[in-house]
Amino acid sequence: MRTRPSYRDISLYSPPVVPCRVDLSDNTNLFGVPPAAERALREAAPSLVTRYPISYAPDLKQALSRYTGFEPSWLTTGCGSDDLIDCALRAFLEPGERIAVPDPSFSMMSYFARVNGLQFSPVPLRPDWDIDVEAMLATGARLLYVCSPNNPTSTVASRAALERLVDSAPGVVLLDEAYTEFSQGSNVDLVRSRPNVLVTRTLSKAFGLAGMRVGYAIGRPELVAEVEKARGPYKHNGIAERMAIAALTEDLPWVKAHVEEVRVLRRRLVEALEAMGLKPLPTEANFVFVPFPGAIQVAARMRDRDVNIRAFQGLTGVGEALRIGCGPWPLMEAALNALREAWR
Ligand code: PMP
């Protein structure tokens, strides 16, 4: 059977599934479902199942508009921000064009580049973990991606570097703010002051709705309209939409309280790791990143103790590292105990 030739060498991107009692591997919200969203799930009308959702999710855009302060025409939504990143790459680049991505950063970017037929330029982060603006521009890429706070390093791009990048970019800068709620501040205002910024965000992290697959993007209406062409009318299902709307309107105190709690928890986790002699990076996300040689083996031994955390090897400028998601303290304690035993 004839299929797309350039896909033949692409392997499926399939994150490992490791069933463990304590799972801190995917940076999701470990405090349960926000209450209004849960109510929306229980009360979902049958018509949400039997009928198509309204195309381009106008009700969800209204709720997002109230939450973000951007007009609905500046917003688009998708099946997680994954989906919007993929749509944006298709909307802004022709196959064969180039995308530049800091390294290390969100691991799915190289995959999205490949399935969209793009050239991919990883650009090492600077030793201070900031983006290397000149090196990114020197790739000649038409689209520049920046993730801040960055997954997996948990660090942020400096405002000065971001502004220089945006002002000198030959095309769109895609700013991934999946973890923005946990940081000291968003850079979404760049969308208003510059014509070439698209910000992607998600309800998978601070809002606790990862399984519902709801993400959104913010940009000038001209940019958003192009992304919607790549998106098509129907994406997330009607129940996910109702849950997202409930969370965005009624669960904001719940979200805020847990974001605050994560800030405290991550500080405690960092201190405990430092007391062990490890050197976690400064974190502005809901996870802690700890580079050290032997991390892969330590993570494997932690899994034997029913604790799953994400381990990396061969990361540019880092080598091996652990990434530990922050959740209720008993989970952190379980992870720390397993880590201490695994490290011996
Ligand atoms: N961007 C970053 C940096 C992420 O870490 C993730 C989730 N791992 C995503 C985007 C995608 O999240 P979602 O598709 O659930 O919105």
How many individual domains? 2
Strand order in the largest sheet: 2-8-7-6-5-3-4
Query: Residue share in helices?
Result: 25-40%
Poorly predicted runs of 5 or more residues: none
Sheet of most strands: 7 strands, mixed
Shape summary: globular
Q: Evaluate the radius of gyration.
A: 20 Å
**The CATH topology of the largest domain is what?**
Aspartate Aminotransferase, domain 2
What binds here, in terms of ligands, is: 4'-deoxy-4'-aminopyridoxal-5'-phosphate
* Element-level helix/strand string: EHHHEHEHEHEHEHEEHHHEHEEEH
Estimate the mean pLDDT confidence. 97
Give me the number of helical elements.
13
CATH architecture of the largest domain: 3-Layer(aba) Sandwich
CATH homology-level superfamily of the largest domain: Type I PLP-dependent aspartate aminotransferase-like (Major domain)
Give an account of the 3D structure.
Belongs to the class-II pyridoxal-phosphate-dependent aminotransferase family. Histidinol-phosphate aminotransferase subfamily. It comes from Stigmatella ashevillensis. By secondary structure, this protein is of the alpha/beta class. Helix content is 40%, strand content 17%. It folds into two domains: 14-31 and 253-343, Aspartate Aminotransferase, domain 1 (Alpha-Beta Complex), CATH 3.90.1150; 35-250, Type I PLP-dependent aspartate aminotransferase-like (Major domain) (Aspartate Aminotransferase, domain 2), CATH 3.40.640.10. β11 (310-315) and β12 form a beta hairpin. It starts with 21 loop residues before the first strand and ends with a helix.
